[in-house]
């Protein structure tokens, strides 16, 4: 009997169980079949192994199903992995790889080897010869995984390509012609939109349906050759977090360039002169700014150049409202950074720069004016889609992550994927210590520094996770003042990422990181460090999603090794704004007053923050649902008009 239960019981559950139970039982049965082939496959030479791979291709071309060849395919790729990269798939990894082919979005504990798991379904679906797209959350991980696993596929006669925003179209087109293509989900989406634009010039209204549902519109100028199979690593980040933002390719604006630039700069200069409640109304829930009558009178009285004065008055109000909004809600080194004279957005979920992405509705230009860098001319939409629409195009959609369970109903409803927890290979030894709560932010920072200094003196490595770049730089300053040597990893230091991560688990190492050290980062530690309790993770603030917090925690205690984590929280944390600005202010005042009298209940404060986190998660979920419904109605309208729904979407 295997650890997944007796074969007879799995055979029964594979037929009569619920959807998740069937997927688990069918996968457990496949693990037995793969293991039964191991001795036979291990006896093959490298050339015979490659020939066996080619034989599977011919069997697929001859009409055999992927289901029938799956056990042999998995046994072949397991042997190839052991010979090339020195890694052998454990039974739980075989279980996870099989479950993904059953429309199960698998959840595996951080450190269980999802990158290796992916080779199983990637190879299986690549046998069909229609191209497999392997997606993750950033270019660093895509390039790393492609380089790490290419030897496995090359031994089996398959070509691997990588698509990257820095590559030209011909290079990306060549990558898509490979059996397996690695890249970020957003890059695949943008390449798809580029193809729509390339086809759109040759399309007629009568051929719009072919463009939407088939590949008849493909030309020599397009890059992608179809949407047969997508395998998504860190699927919760891609399918849920990124789904809040549509993918848009912009077209040049028709407005006079200099007039627009002058107006943005004029609004940025005067935004600070407007007072909350007196000149404008602010809605914290809807994130809107609206000028009151007093504010509008103030706009009219402002000094203006001739170009600005020629703008319609209603548009001037909008420019001022945008300028006020970015002044209050967008902070440098939090939501964005300024690098090489450009405003670059930072993804809170990954801590990385989102190259090529811009805020809509003139907000990006308003930030540029605020930071006094060159204002890019406002743009209109040439093509757009959403994450949901794009991934539903794939015939086979597979995913894996370390944190999906809390969002399992959303992925079931939208993508028809069933979340399935995969057991760990080794029992987890990670310890999660109780949260520490402080009424003032500075008290929290001092406590973090004290904890880091104490662990550093014990030679135990520490990873300090921060929510923003400026927070990482603040804690770095405090550590320097206290004589604690450390390294810092954020979007400004992305070029040194591999080097910093490789040393983060060394004796006495102290590493400060934004979420760049969250997803997909494997921090290696020695046996000496394990004997001390392993890597210790300090979280300095909770994020909008519990899943992001769990990703940070998952950097320690990987592969069954010891590790620990603890969060240091404060009443000043941004998360409390989930209750709304007014209520958050009342909560802070109430608890600080109680603390001065010695009556504060820290456990209750922690629960308040967790409740605020759930409120934000629900709000974001509603936003994704509303956007999906809007896109569905817009698509139907475009199709009824005989238009390509991915094009002709100017606002």
From TrEMBL:
GO terms for molecular function: ATP binding; protein-exporting ATPase activity. Its EC number is 7.4.2.8. It comes from the Bacteria. Residues 433-606 form the Helicase C-terminal domain. The gene is secA. Residues 95-259 form the Helicase ATP-binding domain. Gene3D superfamilies: P-loop containing nucleotide triphosphate hydrolases (3.40.50.300), SecA, preprotein cross-linking domain (3.90.1440.10). GO terms for cellular component: cell envelope Sec protein transport complex; cytosol; plasma membrane. Keywords: ATP-binding, Cell membrane, Cytoplasm, Membrane, Nucleotide-binding, Protein transport, Translocase, Translocation, Transport. It is a peripheral membrane protein. It is found in: Cell membrane; Cytoplasm. Residues 9-600 form the SecA family profile domain. The keyword Membrane applies. Monomer and homodimer. Part of the essential Sec protein translocation apparatus which comprises SecA, SecYEG and auxiliary proteins SecDF. Other proteins may also be involved. This is Protein translocase subunit SecA. ATP binds at residues 93, 111-115, 522. Part of the Sec protein translocase complex. Interacts with the SecYEG preprotein conducting channel. Has a central role in coupling the hydrolysis of ATP to the transfer of proteins into and across the cell membrane, serving as an ATP-driven molecular motor driving the stepwise translocation of polypeptide chains across the membrane. One of its GO terms (biological process) is protein targeting. PANTHER family: CHLOROPLAST PROTEIN-TRANSPORTING ATPASE, SECA INNER MEMBRANE COMPONENT OF SEC PROTEIN SECRETION SYSTEM. Belongs to the SecA family.
């Amino acid at each position: 009997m295997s650890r997944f239960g007796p074969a007879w019981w799995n055979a029964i559950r594979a037929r009569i169980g619920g959807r998740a139970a069937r997927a688990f039982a069918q996968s457990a049965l496949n693990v037995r079949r793969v293991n039964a082939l191991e001795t036979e496959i291990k006896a093959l030479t490298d050339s015979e192994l490659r020939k066996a791979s080619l034989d599977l291709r011919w069997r697929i071309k001859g009409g055999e199903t992927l289901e029938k060849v799956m056990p042999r395919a998995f046994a072949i790729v397991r042997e190839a992995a052991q010979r090339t990269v020195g890694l052998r798939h454990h039974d739980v990894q075989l279980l996870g790889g099989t479950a993904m082919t059953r429309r199960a979005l698998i959840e595996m504990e951080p450190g269980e080897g999802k990158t290796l798991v992916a080779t199983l379904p990637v190879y299986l679906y690549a046998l069909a010869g229609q191209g497999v797209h392997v997606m993750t959350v950033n270019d660093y991980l895509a390039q790393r995984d492609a380089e790490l696993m290419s030897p496995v596929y090359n031994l089996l006669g398959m070509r691997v390509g990588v698509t990257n925003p820095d590559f030209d179209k011909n290079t990306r087109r060549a990558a898509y012609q490979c059996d397996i293509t690695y890249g970020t989900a957003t890059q695949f989406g943008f390449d798809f939109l580029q193809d729509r634009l390339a086809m759109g010039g040759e399309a007629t209204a009568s051929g719009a349906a072919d463009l939407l549902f088939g590949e008849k519109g493909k030309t020599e100028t397009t890059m992608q050759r179809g949407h047969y199979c997508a395998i998504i690593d860190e699927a919760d980040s891609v399918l849920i977090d990124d789904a809040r933002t549509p993918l848009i390719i912009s077209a040049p604006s028709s407005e006079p360039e200099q007039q627009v630039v002058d107006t943005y700069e004029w609004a940025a200069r005067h935004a600070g002169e407007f007072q909350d409640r007196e000149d404008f109304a602010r809605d914290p829930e809807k994130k809107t700014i609206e000028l009151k009558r007093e504010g509008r009178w103030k706009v009219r009285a402002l000094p203006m150049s001739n170009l600005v004065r020629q703008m319609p008055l209603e548009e001037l109000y909008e420019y001022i409202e945008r300028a006020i909004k970015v002044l209050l809600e967008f902070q440098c080194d939090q939501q964005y950074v300024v690098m090489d004279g450009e405003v670059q957005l930072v993804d809170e979920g990954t801590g990385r720069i989102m190259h090529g992405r811009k805020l809509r509705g003139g907000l990006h230009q308003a930030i540029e004016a605020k930071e006094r860098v060159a204002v890019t001319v406002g743009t209109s939409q040439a093509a757009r889609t959403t994450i949901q629409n794009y991934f539903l195009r794939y015939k086979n959609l597979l995913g894996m992550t370390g944190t999906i369970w809390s969002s399992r109903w959303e992925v079931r409803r939208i993508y028809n994927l069933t979340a399935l927890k995969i057991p760990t290979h080794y029992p987890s030894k990670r310890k999660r210590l109780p949260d520490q709560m402080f009424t003032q932010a500075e008290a929290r920072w001092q406590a973090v520094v004290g904890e880091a200094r104490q662990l550093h003196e014990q030679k135990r490595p520490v990873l300090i996770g921060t929510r923003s770049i400026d927070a990482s730089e603040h804690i770095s300053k405090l550590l320097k003042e206290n004589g604690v040597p450390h390294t810092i990893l954020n979007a400004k230091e992305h070029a040194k990422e591999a080097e910093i991560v490789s040393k983060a688990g060394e004796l006495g190492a102290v590493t400060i990181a934004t979420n760049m050290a969250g997803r997909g980062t494997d921090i290696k530690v020695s046996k000496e460090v394990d004997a001390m309790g392993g890597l210790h993770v300090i979280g300095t603030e909770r994020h909008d999603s519990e899943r992001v917090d769990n990703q940070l925690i998952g950097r320690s205690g990987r592969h069954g090794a010891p590790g620990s984590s603890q969060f240091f929280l404060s009443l000043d944390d941004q998360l409390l704004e989930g209750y709304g600005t007014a209520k958050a202010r009342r909560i802070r005042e109430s608890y600080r007053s109680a603390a001065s009298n010695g009556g504060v209940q820290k456990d209750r404060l922690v629960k308040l923050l967790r409740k605020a986190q759930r409120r934000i998660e629900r709000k974001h979920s509603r936003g994704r649902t509303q956007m999906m419904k809007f896109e569905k109605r817009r698509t139907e309208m475009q199709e009824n008009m005989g238009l390509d729904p991915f094009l002709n979407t100017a606002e």
